[in-house]
Amino acid sequence: MKFITRQQLLFLAAVAFRFCSPADNSSSRITWMSHHFILPGRFTWLGVKCRDVSQHFCLYSILYDHRFFINRMPLESDLEVFESVIRHSFTSINWYSMFQSNDSESCCEFQSFIYKNHGWRKGVSPELFLDHVFDFSLTNKQVNYIYATYAENLCHNVITEVGFGPGKLRLNGRILQNTPFIFPIQNTGEIKFIPANYVRSSLTYNWFRSEIICAAQPWICEWSTENV
Fold first, then answer.
1. Other CB atoms within 10 A of residue 129 CB
2. Phi, psi (5° rounding) for residue 177?
3. Which of 77, 100, 133 is the last residue of a domain?
4. Per-residue pLDDT reduced to its tens digit, 94-123
5. Enclosing domain of residue 93
6. What is the pTM of this model?
7. Cα separation of 169 and 144, whole Å?
8. Which residue, of 101, 133, 165, is where some domain finishes?
9. Residue 110 CA: distances (Å) to CA of 3, 95, 192
């Protein structure tokens, strides 16, 4: 008999929460959305914060296009519903607080702040936001957001944040144009080199999930493999 892990149980609880809640077809209207991750490192303050709690990655947010809004009145109870779910599952997806230093147990001030500013104010229900947060499937995922900093000593743009989802690639940060990128893999000390003109084909979500996400949370790939 194969037993379910705690992480899988928490994931199932989140999924059940979604499907036992009122249906929301707003996802069909989304043209750009990014599952946004912080990479541990020394080049940004978020990277330093992340490095304190993980050598792999830190989930940051779901980002929506600035023009995306849902015709739904935000409710104060939304924040309570959101917190009641994420409080028991944030560690299983590396959604650690960026407010606290070297603290992997803090919940849920930071996570609620992210939902309130990136989802709730746009009319996004806690059910829909959590549905997007817990979606680690390979469906409709391309790199569509990169924050990078040009490092003169390395002669490359160092990727410090990355996001995946539908829509065009958006570049942000202090990037030197027409210069290759590097993706530092902190837990192994390796570096992935990415040509400037082949970012989307070189940095795939399939690779990121397998080598970065599942290195920290193996249950995500195990669950996906068992339920294809």
1. 23
2. -60, 150
3. 133
4. 999 998 766 677 899 999 999 999 999 999
5. 7-133
6. 0.87
7. 4
8. 133
9. 32, 9, 30
